[in-house]
């Protein structure tokens, strides 16, 4: 940065002005006195010169007037004119009659008006001419007029030199002082100013003032050091101030005992979480967690233990629910809140609820005692239950209070129907987890019919769950849950095993049918799925060509490369692959061409309104045509009427399954069905 302030304000310049003024004024005074004294001396000198001159010619002049010798008088006068300064010389008789006389004009000089005022233009001197023997008698007068011009000239010359030297001295002195001042003071000061400008007022001790080189021990050095010490002290004090502020802030914003955000802070965080979920279109759960009977625990174990319990609750919550999904807070003495964002639905909130109940119900061991306690949770969901942060919190708090009236150690959702649904599904998941070992599953088989030959060519295996209390649970109700928690992997393997076993039984009974099983996307994602399937086939001694896997388009969408690879390996082993529910998903030709697929299954939703709804008819037709052009077998699913069967057959669809032929059947029923179906067909053809 340049020093932009004006020159005349600089210290050096002001010093220069002062020095010049003082030197000039004092010089002028001193030299004026000198010059005046010189003028007086010059004046005296002139007088002395005149009297000396007169003394020299006095005798000759007296001789001339005494003897009235005008020649002599003229001679004396002429002699006097040798002196340049004399402009009139006269020897007169006592009556004034001149005996000898000579004059010349005053010299013209430009400075005369000044010097004439000091010395007069001319000075005249008169001497009485007497004889020693008779000093009383005056014989005449000698008159001399001096021109002051020449002597004033020399005086003026000296005066000029005197003044000039005084001014020159003042100027030189001023300049030298200016430079010295600049080097010693102005320049280092400006550097200091630059350095000071770079000091950060918020952190004054971060960058201190630089000491200009060479000024370590002088006043500037002292000043810089003193200032730097001050800056450090200010910095220290600011830091302390900030720390104190932070502490106060923390105390106000965070609960001292547990370190969790207190109400106001929590509400801000909740608001931010809500906005995030709003943007991402996800669900947020706000769980209010109250310790059951905290008051009596406090009374029995003392407040110190009470505090330790609260700290342990906070610790367990934050250690068990890690990640940025969660936000915590402590709102009241025994009341904690937990926010979980980015959820799909309330079920995930229920999972978290379970985890909270679990982690807090474990006994807490303190020095001298072990305490077991439980909590009760009230859960409110955004956006379902409330859209505003305060309403949501209110809902959760209210739910928790209500829940505590009914029992302990459980969670309750704000909306009763949601609570019911979630509770049921939780129960379902729990039951599902033991259904396999309790042998509650079985398979049913739905025949697949060749529309041209009217023969059963295979069966789709469909799972059934016989729940001990609820009865038959449809797969649409539990398969998604099993996919979500991963149980589908075991269940799917069980299905595969069962289906293969059945196929092997049928084959040995003279009914070598192809069996189709549904392969979930979660199963397809398993590393070992290919080996698992091939091993199962091997174990049951089933040729790979007798197995068909039904996959949906969505199941190979997520990781296309991997899915293609696995399906290719399965296909090259001889297994056929069918795309299930074709037409309901993305149905992209690109995928279809890359996939090693042999069958397309038209979803039952298009068959249901076939011949009623034009659009559905068009879609079914398109799939049949697509199958033809890609050389894929098309299977119509959900055929319920003769009209549908007829239409599909004449439109060129090769295979069909549906209630029109048969509902899915238990194995023995299936065997009977095949027998009667085939014999019926044979009868029909014989009858023809
Ligand atoms: P999906 O694979 O599309 O199976 C066809 C569904 O349509 C079956 O329902 C079947 O009973 C039903 N269906 C058959 N014909 C007709 C008909 O003419 N009319 C009507 N309205 N429905 C018919 P289900 O057995 O309830 O199975 C439902 C879904 O559950 C299946 O759809 C499949 O995605 C899944 N699923 C069933 N078993 C298994 C399994 O073992 N593993 C896996 N991963 N999923 C399975
Ligand atoms: Ca299927
Ligand atoms: Ca289907």
**Could you give me the name of the CATH homologous superfamily of the largest domain?**
EAL domain
* Tally of DSSP helical segments: 22
Determine the N-to-C terminus distance.
111 Å
CATH architecture of the largest domain: Alpha-Beta Barrel
CATH topology of the largest domain: TIM Barrel
Count of distinct strands: 20
What percent strand? 15-25%
Helix content: 55-70%
What spatial order of strands do you see in the largest sheet? 12-13-15-16-17-18-19-20
Bound molecules: ligand C2E, calcium ion
Weakly predicted, low-confidence segments:
none
Count of separate structural domains: 3
Helix/strand/pairing category? alpha/beta
Largest sheet: 8 strands, mixed, barrel
Please give a structural write-up.
With 688 residues, this protein is of the alpha/beta class. The chain has three domains: 2-165, 2-Layer Sandwich (Beta-Lactamase); 257-415, Reverse transcriptase/Diguanylate cyclase domain (Alpha-Beta Plaits), CATH 3.30.70.270; 427-678, TIM Barrel, CATH 3.20.20.450. The strands form four sheets. Strands 12-13-15-16-17-18-19-20 form an eight-stranded mixed beta barrel, surrounded by five helices. A hairpin with a 2-residue loop joins β6 (326-332) and β7. α9 (346-361) crosses α11 (416-435) and α13 runs parallel beside α15. The chain is rod-shaped. Residues 460, 518, 550, 580 line the site of one calcium ion.
Short description:
The chain is of the alpha/beta class.
List keywords for this structure.
single chain, 688 residues, alpha/beta, Beta-Lactamase, Alpha-Beta Plaits, TIM Barrel, 8-stranded mixed beta barrel, 22 helices, 20 strands, binds calcium ion
């Amino acid at each position: 940065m340049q020093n932009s302030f004006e020159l005349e304000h600089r210290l050096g310049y002001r010093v220069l002005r002062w020095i010049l003024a003082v030197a000039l004024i004092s010089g002028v005074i001193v030299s004026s006195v000198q010059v005046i004294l010189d003028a007086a001396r010059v004046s005296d000198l002139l007088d002395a010169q005149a009297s000396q001159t007169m003394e020299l010619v006095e005798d000759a002049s007296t001789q001339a007037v005494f003897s009235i010798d005008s020649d002599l008088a003229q001679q004396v006068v002429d002699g006097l004119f040798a002196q340049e300064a004399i402009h009139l010389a006269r020897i007169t008789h006592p009556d004034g009659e001149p005996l000898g006389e000579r004059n010349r004009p005053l010299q013209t000089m430009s400075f005369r008006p000044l010097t004439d005022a000091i010395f007069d233009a001319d000075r005249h001197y008169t001497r009485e001419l007497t004889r020693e023997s008779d000093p009383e008698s005056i014989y005449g007068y000698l008159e001399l007029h001096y021109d002051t011009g020449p002597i004033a000239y020399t005086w003026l010359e000296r005066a000029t030199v005197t003044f000039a030297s005084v001014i020159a001295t003042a100027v030189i002195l001023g300049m030298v002082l200016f430079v010295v001042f600049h080097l010693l003071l102005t320049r280092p000061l400006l550097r200091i100013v630059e350095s000071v400008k770079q000091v950060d007022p918020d952190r004054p001790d971060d960058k201190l003032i630089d000491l200009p080189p060479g000024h370590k021990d002088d006043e500037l050095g002292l000043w810089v050091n003193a200032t730097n010490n001050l800056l450090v002290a200010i910095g220290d004090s600011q830091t302390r101030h900030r720390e104190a502020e932070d502490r106060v802030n923390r105390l106000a914003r965070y609960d001292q005992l547990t370190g969790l955000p207190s109400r106001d802070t929590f509400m801000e965080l909740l608001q931010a979480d809500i906005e995030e979920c709003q943007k991402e279109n996800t669900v947020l759960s706000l769980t209010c967690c109250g310790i059951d009977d905290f008051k009596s625990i406090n009374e029995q174990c003392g407040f110190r233990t009470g505090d330790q319990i609260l700290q342990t609750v906070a610790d367990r919550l934050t250690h068990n629910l890690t990640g940025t999904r969660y936000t915590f807070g402590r709102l009241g003495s025994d009341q904690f809140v937990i926010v979980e964002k980015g959820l799909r639905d309330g079920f995930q909130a229920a999972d978290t609820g379970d985890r909270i109940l679990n982690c807090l119900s474990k006994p807490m061991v303190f020095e001298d005692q072990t305490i077991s306690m439980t909590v009760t949770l009230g859960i409110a969901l955004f956006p379902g239950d409330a859209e505003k942060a305060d309403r949501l919190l209110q809902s959760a708090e209210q739910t928790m209070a209500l829940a505590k009236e009914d029992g302990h150690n459980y969670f309750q959702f704000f909306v009763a129907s949601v609570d019911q649904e979630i509770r049921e599904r939780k129960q379902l998941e729990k039951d599902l987890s033991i259904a396999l070992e309790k042998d509650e599953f079985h398979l049913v088989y739905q025949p697949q019919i060749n529309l041209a030959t009217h023969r059963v060519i295979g069966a789709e295996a469909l799972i059934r769950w016989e729940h001990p209390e609820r009865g038959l649970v449809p797969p649409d109700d539990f398969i998604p849950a099993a996919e979500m928690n991963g149980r589908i992997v075991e269940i799917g393997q069980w299905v595969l095993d069962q289906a293969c076993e059945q196929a092997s039984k049928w084959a040995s009974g003279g009914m070598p049918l192809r069996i189709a099983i549904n392969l979930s996307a979660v199963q397809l994602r398993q590393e070992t799925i290919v080996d698992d399937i091939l091993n199962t086939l091997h174990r049951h001694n089933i040729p790979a060509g007798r197995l068909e896997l039904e996959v949906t388009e969505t199941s190979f969408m997520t990781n296309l490369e991997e899915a293609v690879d696995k399906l290719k390996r399965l296909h090259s082993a001889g297994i056929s692959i069918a795309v299930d529910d074709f037409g309901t998903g993305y149905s992209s030709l690109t995928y279809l061409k890359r996939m090693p697929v042999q069958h397309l299954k038209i979803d039952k939703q298009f068959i249901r309104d076939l011949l009623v709804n034009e659009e559905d008819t068009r879609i079914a037709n398109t799939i049949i045509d697509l199958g033809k052009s890609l050389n894929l077998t098309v299977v119509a699913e959900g055929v319920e009427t003769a009209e549908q069967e007829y239409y599909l057959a004449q439109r060129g669809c090769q295979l069909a399954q549906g209630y029109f032929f048969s509902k899915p059947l238990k194995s023995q029923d299936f065997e009977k069905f095949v027998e009667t179906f085939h014999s019926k067909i044979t009868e029909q053809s014989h009858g023809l």
